[in-house]
Amino acid sequence: MRTSTPKSAYVRGVLDGLPFILVIIPFAALFGLLAVEAGLNVVEALVFSLVVIAGAAQFTALQLMQDEAPTIIVLASALAVNLRMAMYSASLTPYIGSAPLWQRALAAYLTVDQSYIVAVSKFEREPAMTVPQRVAYFLGAVTPVAPLWYVFTVVGAVLGAQVPESWALDFAIPITFLAMIGPMFRTLAHVAAAFVAVVVSLLAAGVPYSLGIIIAGAAGMIAGAQVELWLERRKGAET
């Protein structure tokens, strides 16, 4: 379905973002629950989600807070996990970089894994979309995600220990990221980066303060970059 106006692009974005509701609800509720267990109250948990709005970084910070890690380690680790947002922004710039400042600022705040994956996939499939259509689609894609992230952070924080362990809300974390990255495995470099990151994360599981995640992420990016360079050299040699 091709978009023709910003309004229809927004509606299409909402529809494409709806499937993420299935994982955002338990994901956010789990964060709220763990935030309370880590010593935050309901208001603090909500403010955390409002200000950061980045699930992986929030969970990383909470885990380190529970481990009583030094504040500098908590901040550095959360920042490192969230550095992917800088790459997301750079990737989105060719598509919406000429939008008005307030729209770019809003998009920057609402750039989360789900909105980025859905939007970039759409923009690549339909390069003829105008900038207003792209911005509208991006905002539509995040519309089902952001409000539910806030609401169910509060729900999880309020319910707290009343949520039985048998509900296993933590299933939402791996499923969310698997659902997002699966369609993005389009090249050998993508596969290599993911494979190396997984292997290194398992090997570095015992590194203190969950720093193994950062090590694995860096290793995955290096591997992906090296594979891309190898493929480019091979292509150049063949021509």
Automatic annotation (TrEMBL):
The chain crosses the membrane at residues 20-40, 46-65, 135-159, 165-181, 188-207. It is found in: Cell membrane. Its main location: membrane. It is a multi-pass membrane protein. Pfam families: AzlC. Signal peptide: none annotated. Keywords: Cell membrane, Membrane, Transmembrane, Transmembrane helix, Transport. The keyword Transmembrane helix applies. The keyword RNA-binding does not apply. Belongs to the AzlC family. This is AzlC family ABC transporter permease. It comes from Sulfitobacter sediminis.
